[in-house]
Amino acid sequence: MVEIDDLTKDYAARRVVDGVSFTVGDGEIAAVVGPSGSGKTTLLRMINRLIEPSSGSVRIDGKDTRAVPPHVLRRGIGYAIQGYGLFPHRTVAQNIATVPRLMGWARARIDARVDALLDLFQLPAAEFRHRMPNSLSGGQQQRVGVARALAAEPNVLLMDEPFGALDPIIRTKAQSDLLAIQRRFGTTIIVVTHDIEEAIHLGSRIAVLDAGKLVQYATPADVIARPATPLVAELIGGDRPFRLLSLGKVVDLVEAGPASGEPIRADASLRDAYAELLWTRRDVLPVIDATGTVVGRIRRDAITVRAGAPS
Amino acid sequence: MRRATSPEAPEVSAIATTARSRLPFDKLGVLIAAMAGSAAFLPFATFRVNRIVLGEGRALFAALPFGEAAFLAIAIAAGIVLAVSKTPARWRLAVSLAILVALCVAIGHASTFLTPPGDRMARVSPGSGFWLSIFAFALLAADAIVRLKLAPIVRIGILAAVALFLALLLASGTLSDLSILREYANRGDTFWREARTHLALALGSLAVAVVAGVPLGIVLHGRRGWRAPVLSVLNVIQTIPSLALFGLLIAPLAWLAANVPLAAALGISGIGAAPAMVALFAYSLLPVVANTVVGLDNVPPAADDAARGMGMTDWQRLVGVQLPLSFPVILTSIRIVLVQNIGLATVAALIGAGGLGVFVFQGIGQSAMDLVLLGAVPTVALAFVAAVVLDATVEMASTRSARRGRD
Amino acid sequence: MRPSLIVRVGVLALLVAFVTQPESFAWAFEPLTRNGQPAIYTQNSLINLTLSHLAIVAVATVCATLLAVGLAVLVTRPFGAEFLPLSRAIANLGQTFPPVAVLALAVPVLGFGTGPTLVALFLYGLLPILENALTGLTTLPPAVTEAARGVGMTGWQRLLDVELPLATPVILAGIRLSVVISVATATIGSTVAASTLGEVIIAGLLTNNVAFIAQGGLVVGIIAVLIYDALTGLEASLLQRTGQRRPA
To answer: Which chains touch B (3 or more CB pairs under 8 A)?
Structure first.
């Protein structure tokens, strides 16, 4: 758990982060969004004390971050950044082993951990262990960067635009991979992004910063449905109904009743279901589960109601 | 080849601003105070009965009338206080320049004060205390100039003011009892002749190198295959020590002079100006050619494409777009070459080409250090002036072309 | 073996053969002599002059490297950051001092002999190394230095494990520049009675013996080019080893 309490940073006359407080529960992903210059990176860097706060405090698992020297604190917190910052003079394995080595792990344990992480990130250890970073593709470098951040099994992972340099297709895959790994380790993640789509996709909660202040901290559905300020609404953009639908699953609205034609799977998004309804000019779709058994139907009206503005 | 100074990394500059505000005193000031303070215990001037014998040091209060010595001591003490405390850079610059002026006037007075009236043999030269003080306050001035981030034209202005002051000081005769000017007085005509030779060698070889090097660079820009071999040959030449290259040219040029009547008629011979010019020219080629190639390579492809799209011929593109855009880089090479040649021309004296090096090596031969200084000090000054003026010009040229590029 | 390597080894072998057995090459230099001048310089053994020349350069360069890199490290830490802009200016403008002038100015202070040459080489040699070390240490990829702090390295660990290894190729380029200048200035050092190969050239100039001038010039020139070449190769391989250049 990460508790951020009244965190403030002043540079000379400018207040970059202004009294921000929020709590990220265990195993949650908090996505911090905001326009550039809103203080999101400064906020993130105050959590592992790469920047010392002017006032306020951060507690990780109940312990004040000021209780230990900054470099010791950072070894216990994963950190992945845009551009990845892989050490170009070290092999992939040496890069991943950085923090365990700093923490004095035994050689055998480090090797085992490195191999496990490489396999987890779909980089076959035998092939990649001894490669140099500059011989990797962007997507591979990104994965090594996250593997390095997770190497010492931290409870908390901080990420600053981790997918910013990837092209759209690799980016979506990397986001899904991250979610899968997060579920597996139960890591608490705070990710800074300028991309609201990414925030909605990754975040269990979204923190919106504007000019250093936290203007909304809520679940993606809440942020879309009830934007706290005009800026938040503007960040989400004009296609709010579709964003809401992409968060919901067909299974949420499935009901008993007859329907005909091509079925849709219960775990598909409402947005996909709606698209299918429009495209095939139908009012209802049969819904099937993973085994292909029909479990009910979904109506266009129900989806329309779901996509409407909250009353 | 000199690598372009890179812009400060943002993290370091952030540290610099915070570091500067935390301590109650200025760190460089402490260093300057230590130097200027220890200078007080070193001789301000050195007195010698004649130009060859060993000198004996004279402390500040022994080298000057009491009043003037006291004034200088107080001025330096004030300068130290100012340097140590956190004061605005503008003040630091003004005060350090004032102290440098006072030191220069004082050393002139000291030489008159210490020389027995009518004695033409006695020599007074600046002592280590004087040099250390000059160095300390020059450092303070340099630091202030760096901190002020002065515009190039202002830097040239300051340099011009300093040069004017020194010229006036020399013309006024205040310094004429100093040993280095005693040497000058004995060979005024030779001095100016060798100075002209020195400049002719440095500037002449530079001019030829630009005339030959820029077109060569243009050709290499177009023909990538020729680039590596030509540049590595020029690199190898640049690597050969000056004395060796001067020497290696003697035999072929002597042969040329002996066997080609035209060469002899042109005044080419094994020793003297010919090998010096050839060697300096050869040294100058690499920076000029390499920077021309780099400058042309760095022309934004969009600008070049646009020029092509508008129907410019190759020649129009070269003259109208590519050369103007690469001008700052080419100018940088001229700075490198000129400074380098002013230094190397000194060595040319060893093969009979003349120049200020004549005094340096004569002085070394006669163990007459004042004579060495008569050659070395103007050389250093020339190189320094060339560097400051051309650095400022390069800066102006690059901001102008950057501005042009933006519009 | 690659042809370029064969050429290098051949030149080196020729150089070693010449400085150890100069008399065997007298036939090559005889055509340059006049009036029965000696073809080979014998006042001092070439091998001794060569070794002394190289030793002076090596000592000056090693000392200059240690001090320059130390200074660069100091002014790029928060403690010394106040000195960074000034150090840049000094490294840049200091190099406008002609090396010969530094040598000449060392004589009044230190007298004649190998000493002033060594000091002049050391002082001048500092500057290119300092300039490059400053460049190397301040132009590290920002993401890498950020990551080094972010993973919890201490200041020392960052310096020794990340910053210095990555800056080494740039520093080495400065050392190469410094060595080239030192080899040249050491040659001129023989005018202030330093024991270097310049002695052969100066002797030739004084006695009008072109053969001396040519052999001295050739030996010094070849040594300079070979050292330059070796350091360039070392630099390229370091760049590749530290992953800053893609393998060809």
So the answer is: C
